[in-house]
Amino acid sequence: MIKFLGKNGFNIYIYAPKDDPYHREKWAEPYPRDLLGRLAELVDVSNRSGVSFCFAISPGLSMTYSSENDLDKLTSKFREVAKLGIRWFGLFLDDIPQEFQHEQDKRAYKSLGEAHAHLCNRLEKGLREIAGDGVRLIMCPTQYVGVEPAEYHRAIADGLSPAVYVMWTGKYVLSPTITGEDADSFGRGIGRKPFLWDNYPVNDYVSQNKVFLGPVKGRTPDLMEHLSGFVSNPMNQEEASKLVLITYREYFRDHLRYDPDAAWGRAVKELLPRPICKDFMAFSEHSRACFLDYSESQRLEQLVKRVLEKPKELGPLNVLARYLTRQRRSVNALRQGLKGPLKGELKPALRKVVLLLEIGIVSTDLLKRTRRGSTKASRKKAKIIDSMVHVAQQDESQVLGELRILSSMDGRKPVERDSFILDLARLATSSKEE
Known about the structure:
The chain is an alpha/beta fold. It folds into two domains: 2-275, Alpha-Beta Barrel (TIM Barrel), CATH 3.20.20.80; 298-431, Up-down Bundle (Methane Monooxygenase Hydroxylase, Chain G, domain 1). The protein has helices at 2-7, 33-49, 68-82, 103-108, 112-131, 151-159, 180-190, 238-253, 260-271, 274-284, 298-309, 314-337, 340-370, 376-394, 420-431, and strands at 12-15, 52-57, 88-92, 136-140, 165-168, 195-201, 229-233, 403-405, 415-417. Helix 7 links the parallel strand 5 and strand 6 (195-201). The chain is elongated. It starts with a helix and ends with a helix.
């Protein structure tokens, strides 16, 4: 991933994995020699790729902010990795209690914001003594979201060194749109331009059962001018994430004329073999719904809707059947043509798409049969559809219009939507009784 970033003009990689115990739970403990060696490899690759490697620690669950002993442990940890050549550091204070956990801190500070500003200032000074004036510190505040400043932000603005970057995710944790006006509003609260941590295409809030195959959108052309930095938070599916990152690259290079769909097309052509690009473009339309845009499989939705409205008419059924057959042929060709890690990442979604398309094809056939009345054969086919639907519902991959965002991190109501194919199947199995 770091090599990919360097080749495409990105200039920073932030190392902050929650599954590294020495990043969070064991923040005060030094890295074992083998893990430090692996970290050194990453730093070396970053340096050779022209990418700044930013090492971050999340100590907020247990640290006493006013403790000199804890500060020494934190500084020592950073000193350890600074020897590897790291000059960018992160102090991440997100996803922790918003109240003091230690009596010592309650006595030492008026507010959590004051404590965090004081800690960052002392840490930044210590880092400069360790690694020189080239040091950069990024802070992720506990309140990293919104556009209306709170008391916490004002304490940051009043007390934090101007040299420290402060992260922000936009109006929401998952922000459908982010504007320069939003950035300025939050920036006034923290006393500087915010450093945007854009939570796309990260997919852990849908349990990684939805692979987001679509371009970044909703970031206004003027946004870059109002930020001190801008990073994307990708999916665990790193190969699929690269496609999205190409669209970020396009936005960064020419945000004034950025066209999301055109950028997506270029990303697919750039990263995939030419013979499968058309099929991949078709497949990606069935796996792109997310907080940026809930729309997906729009042609399928349109065709199914026509059948639902006029189930007795043969014309809409024939059009839908031909569409589903073409899509099945395309997806099967993609399954044959995809190679390497990307094929593994997309295998569950591709399998679910094929199953749902098969359900759709059988359902259209049943609807044609039942136009002439219910028969023993049609009732048998309805049972087959019910069985296939049961299998599909056990598969947690989300494709062909299915979307389950059960949080409100994007400022909207949670969404729980079935695939459009299942609407068709329900119509077909109910029609056998008529």
